[in-house]
Amino acid sequence: MRRRVGVWLFGARGSVATTTIAGAAALNHGSPPAGVVTELPAFAGAGLVPLVQLVFGGHDVVETPLAKRVEQLVAGGVLPPGLAGLIAAELAEADRNIVLLPTGGSQYDVVRRMAEDIRAFALRNDLERVVAINVASTEAPYEIAGGVAELRAALDGSEVLPASVLGALAAFEAGAAYIDFTPSTSIRPAAVREWAVEKRLPYGGQDAKTGETLVKSVLAPMFAARALPVHAWSGTNLLGGGDGATLADPRAAESKSISKERGLAEMIGDVAGEVHIDYVDPMGDWKTAWDHVMFSGFLGVRMTLQFTWQGCDSALAAPLVLDLARLSALALERGHVGAMPFLGFYFKDPIESTEHSLVRQYDELLRWVHAC
Amino acid sequence: MRRRVGVWLFGARGSVATTTIAGAAALNHGSPPAGVVTELPAFAGAGLVPLVQLVFGGHDVVETPLAKRVEQLVAGGVLPPGLAGLIAAELAEADRNIVLLPTGGSQYDVVRRMAEDIRAFALRNDLERVVAINVASTEAPYEIAGGVAELRAALDGSEVLPASVLGALAAFEAGAAYIDFTPSTSIRPAAVREWAVEKRLPYGGQDAKTGETLVKSVLAPMFAARALPVHAWSGTNLLGGGDGATLADPRAAESKSISKERGLAEMIGDVAGEVHIDYVDPMGDWKTAWDHVMFSGFLGVRMTLQFTWQGCDSALAAPLVLDLARLSALALERGHVGAMPFLGFYFKDPIESTEHSLVRQYDELLRWVHAC
Amino acid sequence: MRRRVGVWLFGARGSVATTTIAGAAALNHGSPPAGVVTELPAFAGAGLVPLVQLVFGGHDVVETPLAKRVEQLVAGGVLPPGLAGLIAAELAEADRNIVLLPTGGSQYDVVRRMAEDIRAFALRNDLERVVAINVASTEAPYEIAGGVAELRAALDGSEVLPASVLGALAAFEAGAAYIDFTPSTSIRPAAVREWAVEKRLPYGGQDAKTGETLVKSVLAPMFAARALPVHAWSGTNLLGGGDGATLADPRAAESKSISKERGLAEMIGDVAGEVHIDYVDPMGDWKTAWDHVMFSGFLGVRMTLQFTWQGCDSALAAPLVLDLARLSALALERGHVGAMPFLGFYFKDPIESTEHSLVRQYDELLRWVHAC
Amino acid sequence: MRRRVGVWLFGARGSVATTTIAGAAALNHGSPPAGVVTELPAFAGAGLVPLVQLVFGGHDVVETPLAKRVEQLVAGGVLPPGLAGLIAAELAEADRNIVLLPTGGSQYDVVRRMAEDIRAFALRNDLERVVAINVASTEAPYEIAGGVAELRAALDGSEVLPASVLGALAAFEAGAAYIDFTPSTSIRPAAVREWAVEKRLPYGGQDAKTGETLVKSVLAPMFAARALPVHAWSGTNLLGGGDGATLADPRAAESKSISKERGLAEMIGDVAGEVHIDYVDPMGDWKTAWDHVMFSGFLGVRMTLQFTWQGCDSALAAPLVLDLARLSALALERGHVGAMPFLGFYFKDPIESTEHSLVRQYDELLRWVHAC
User: Fold this and answer.
1) Residue A144: helix, strand or coil by DSSP?
2) Distance between CA atoms of A130 and A55, rounded to whole angstroms?
3) Is D212-312 a CATH 3.40.50.1970 domain?
4) Closest by alpha carbon to A210, among A183, A174, A184?
5) Which helix (H) or strand (E) is A1 found in, with range?
6) How confident is the model at residue C82 (pLDDT cuts 50, 70, 90)?
7) Residue numbers in C near B311 (CB within 8 A)
8) What does the alpha-carbon distance between residue A300 and residue A305 come to, in Å, rounded to a whole number?
9) Average pLDDT score over residue span A174-180
């Protein structure tokens, strides 16, 4: 009756990954599961793998020990003081399962070696199944044309493919489910999706909605349901930390903006207004978003709604990573193949779905969970 | 194929009623139906009475002509300049259908005379059916014990019953559906509800959600769906105008606060924080609400969400009055008897329902509309 | 005892100019002088020209009658309904004093013809003195090197100089004081300033502070006076209307941003954070600014201050134009030559001054006014 | 060349006192003096006592060691982690100087014993002078009529006088300067002030401005200087912690509200709007204030300014306690007798001053500091 599930994280020493690993350990020591949706009573009885049976590993390009990363996150107010001591054993175990991203050889070689890392992780830890989740830095947008054959050729060629694509392929080669928590290229190209289907594996994403977009995904349906025309929706996001530094690169920010804007347009149509993502170094791991919505009521009277969201992204993201690991493990168990649109609840840019209303997405998720 | 429907307004010369009557006329002259939910494509084909076939009348305690009231609302920025001239004929027609609230005799006599006024309105305008809607000032809370028999006795006694109760009974006596758009007593007592059932009539309410509570009804389910514990929810409402002056009376404000707080508790449980309703005379017909929500994420990290809503209550309420008139007319046509919980979408304190999530309420309303 | 003063506006049919002319007329009909600083009791006895003795004229590139522009501003909620009728005579008088900007010939010819227009205005209206104020659209930044001699040569050359420079020179040629209400080039070049001094005339500016920067100019000194280190100051400005459309051009926005940022740096040093200026067409003549300030208290605890300003720029600017006309007329009367740093109270980028604290600027202004 | 100055705190184990004592120690260990106004360059050369020469003691009704209180404030995010160890010696020293408030006997006896405690503190620590500062919980308002003779009689009578009055008298009996950091009764009665003058001692207060009122004291002068009429100013303060619990008592809140509202009325006259102080337990030591200001511009156009302040009161208050100790010691040194209106910069309800503009108060303080 073991049934251990592996969670393979691309970017395994980053803030989201560290918070996920540390948080799972803290929950096992008795912390209340705030933010873990699959711990809500509504999910009971669905046969999800218990949190205590998740085993963490992953790839990263740095070797900073997790204990060190935890200390940094404690200093930044993301994790509670005193945590590192309590969960030292779990951090050490995860450290042993995190390996450096392979380099050298063709890109195909890299994919193969990454897949071997994942398989070795499963074998070493006696895992029933593995879910791979991309929590690495956001990449710039990238187009890949053609099908699996062209992609295979490209892997042996000189065109430098995005790291997220290599990661997704490695997951599929290793028989793992794949989730993209970011807006990177990964499973966007048709060829990558076909690859997953050939391997009879599920995939999901993209770009977890944890803050401003989360709030938008309940406010926009409100305006729609009340027939209130929205004229302009403007937003400014201030963030520091590693994520902020990445998004200070306009090309990475472009990936993020595309994800962010898709939902609004699909919920209420095209409206005026821009979305800014500002890197503000002193904000550290915290994010503040201000949104200004201009709408009109009866006979065209102009009204406004503004909101300010002040959150800590890693602390909002980490419990969702746990959810996605458990839900994807269930999909694997059920033999689900291809896109998982029923996970749209978690994403700004839900794969193969145009539903962005959070409540409807939640209800859809619950229906799938209890479908068997 | 006439099928005209009467809309009988208690408080027929108030801001909400005037905006409703003027707005319906403006729509018939080609204004876009912003805020009228039943004009959304999703409601097409349900056989709702066309807006142009609504006929307005009602009771009030003052005789200010509607044209004068429209002028005041134009000056307050609620209605667009130039409207009064365009819709002069419709205002004059409605003026003829608005009568003074009867006084003198027993309370039972008052009810009978009010019912006669409603029946005369139906006859004079050749109406197929009538929906009575209470848009008068909010009353203080009032308890009525016992059943129909006790209520009949009380009507002939010396205890002064709330005006909203007399209005509801008059509606039922006249064969009209009844909606309470306010948090007053009206249909709260079991005896009043039994009276409706005896007459085989539908009723609905209470306390339209148009601003702060509307936003709460989408934000609270967001926190619930994401398993984010809310620790405190505080709100301050600033409003002027007649509504503000009424709510400056702490006893009337109590009715409003009870309605306002019910939904939050049912959506996310008891949390710290107060709700203030401040009368700020210079705000006129405009309302500003600021809400501060303190919640925690993973491992207890504290985060906040604040919003500021700046709206014009009458302009938000009026299109909903039109919706409720059309939907209640449909309920009458379908022979629905008793409470209409499927109208919960419109109310802070939805009768015979504990569902407060706006999106779920909307879906439930649509299911009922298309149920036949 | 006449003592009439001319106010020559560059951009005389724009929103600020129209609001100024219409507002001055409304004040003469009895409107209270909200926003006119020089009408405060503290300015009494200083011998400022009465508002009723101001006469308006100017240059523009369009010929739309002011009455039409007033109608547009009434529709946009900037001016009160019913105003146009009341002040029809004053608008017609101003219309007669507004002429098309001359074109053709060398730039020197244009300056000479503009100066003639101003002198003709003074003669025709029997004016004691004239103050010229630039309220035209913001230009892109432009550098002019050298002194008066080089500038004279450039006026006869093929290099296209900014319109604001030609306007300033025309004012000086006509013996008028000059104020730049915008961040354009105008009096920035040393050569233009020398030109004014040669003509023994005063000049002032630049870039009126009416909204976000006004608030900054009291908040930043607060942090400084309380020794609270500010780490980041971020701002987003949403605006529509003509001003918004101009600033949607990144080169014009650059002029504005330079002005906006100067004060903050001089008040509290360099801090992180960006300032966005977004053109949001549906905002019309209204502007909303949100600012987020991150600072720390004792022992480094991080705190925040946010503000949201919702104002109508033209209605904030117009009374300041009246102030500047009166104050500059006083400077002319006193024979002041060169820069007027004592007008820094009005500007984001105060000429020959590094004082940005609004209260200190106000006290300095009052001292100058009462200096004789 | 010793010149050590004693700081005697009433409420010496409260949050403000603990943060003050811990903060002074941290500064002596090299923390930057954020928030300490008297460390600004502008105060150099004024002969203020160096921070390192301040010695702390005081009265309290509890005996919780300061080290324990520091731990609690670290947990609440007020003080940085790791502080307690660094400053253990200083905390222990202060602990030795803090004594229980005497009880029993007549009130006059209590005053005498309190004065003896202060004198003993001075003697034991070889202090040149002592400044007593009230940082105890806010009391309900209390009226004391008559002069010193009546007050002496009352001290021996059965009427229970506020603790803050006994503290002020004890300070004067011990030859100490006295500052009220709270809005309590203390130095409000004429008799208490006469007592100070008889003893040739200075006193100052009341009610430190650290958050919402601080911001008001720069925004209100802005509206006044720009001649913009303010119609309504509404505020909601959310706070937890001990201060919040005290202010949840409506009688204590009344003292606070009186202080808070005085400045606004003196700066811009009477305006509509209420100020709420809500106890929100989960806020802990943090405070959030939201203010909404409705004003009008030219020709009556309505505009708004809102701000949200999120601060930690103790961390804002503590450096001001250090300032007030140093400045009052200077006043003692200079032989100043009676009220110290030049300290108005620090207070919501500045004694013997009607100036509330922060910048003018700052300039006045600097003038006094450099007056010799």
Assistant:
1) coil
2) 9
3) no
4) A183
5) none
6) confident
7) none
8) 16
9) 98
Of the candidates D256, D165, D209, the residue with the CA atom closest to the CA atom of residue D355: D209
Per-residue pLDDT tens for D161-200?
Answer: 999 999 999 999 999 999 999 999 999 999 999 999 999 9
Torsion of CA C20, C21, C22, C27, to 10 degrees: 80
List C residues 286-305 in contact with A (Cβ-Cβ < 8 A): 288, 290, 292, 294, 302, 304
- What interface predicted TM-score (ipTM) does this complex get? 0.95
Give per-residue pLDDT as tens, B160-179: 999 999 999 999 999 999 99
Per-residue CA distances from A113 to A173, A174, B345 (Å):
10, 10, 55
Please tell me if residue C30 touches chain B, with a CB cutoff of 8 Å.
no
Tokens representing D204? Answer: 């100052």
Residues A351-370, mean pLDDT to the nearest whole number: 94
> Is D273 in contact with B280 (Cβ distance < 8 A)?
yes
Q: Cβ separation of B278 and D273 shorter than 8 Å?
A: yes
Contacts of A53 (CB under 8 A, 6+ apart): A2, A3, A4, A5
Closest CA to D145 of D159, D133, D132, D135: D159
Interface of B with D in 242-271 (CB under 8 A): none
- Say if residues D156 and D108 touch (Cβ distance below 8 Å): yes
Look-up of token digits 């319109």? C163
Residue B87, C-beta contacts closer than 8 angstroms, at least 6 positions apart: B22, B25, B26, B29, B70
Structure tokens at B280: 């700020």
Look at the block and give the residue holding tokens 């142009």: B52
Q: Which two tokens stand for residue B276?
A: 């203030």
Contact C290 A306 (CB under 8 A): yes
Is B308 within 8 Å of chain D by CB? Answer: yes
The percentage of chain A sitting over the pLDDT mark of 90, rounded to a whole number, equals: 85
What's residue A1's pLDDT?
43
Q: Which residues of chain A are within 8 Å of residue C276 when distances are taken between CB atoms? A: 236, 274, 276
Same CATH topology for C5-207+315-369 and C212-312? Answer: no
What number of other Cβ atoms are within 10 A of residue A338's Cβ?
A: 17
3-class secondary-structure state, position B118: helix
Band of the pLDDT at B2, cuts 50, 70, 90? low
pLDDT of residue C1: 43
Peptide bond connecting C206 to the previous residue in cis, omega within 30 degrees of 0: yes
Is the Cβ–Cβ distance between B55 and B90 less than 8 Å? no
> Which pair of structure tokens corresponds to residue D195?
């007592």
- DSSP E strand stretches across chain D: 5-10, 54-60, 98-100, 129-134, 177-180, 202-205, 230-239, 275-279, 286-296, 302-312, 338-339
Within 10 A of A111 (CB to CB), how many other CB atoms are there? 24
Q: Is C81 part of the contact surface with chain B (CB cutoff 8 Å)?
A: yes
Residue D207: strand, helix, or coil: coil
Query: Position of tokens 């609440």?
Result: D76
Contact list, C280 vs chain A (CB under 8 Å): 232, 234, 272-273, 294
Q: What is the CA radius of gyration of chain A?
A: 20
Whether C304 and A288 lie within 8 Å, measured CB to CB: yes
Q: What is the domain partition of chain D in residue ranges?
A: 5-207+315-369, 212-312
The answer to whether the CB atoms of A81 and D81 lie below 8 A apart is: yes
Q: Which of B221, B296, B309 comes nearest A359 by C-beta?
A: B221
Query: Cis ω on the peptide bond leading into residue A72 (within 30° of 0)?
Result: no
As a whole number of angstroms, the distance between CA C212 and CA C148 comes to 36
Contacts of residue A239 in chain B, CB cutoff 8 Å? Answer: none
Asked if C308 has any chain B CB less than 8 Å from its own CB, the reply is yes
pLDDT, tens digit (0-9, with 9 covering 90-100), for A290-310: 999 999 999 999 999 999 999
CATH class of C5-207+315-369: alpha beta
Judge whether D136 and D14 are in contact, CB under 8 Å.
yes
> Which are the contacts of D153, defined by CB distance < 8 A and separation ≥ 6?
none
Q: How many residues does chain A have?
A: 372
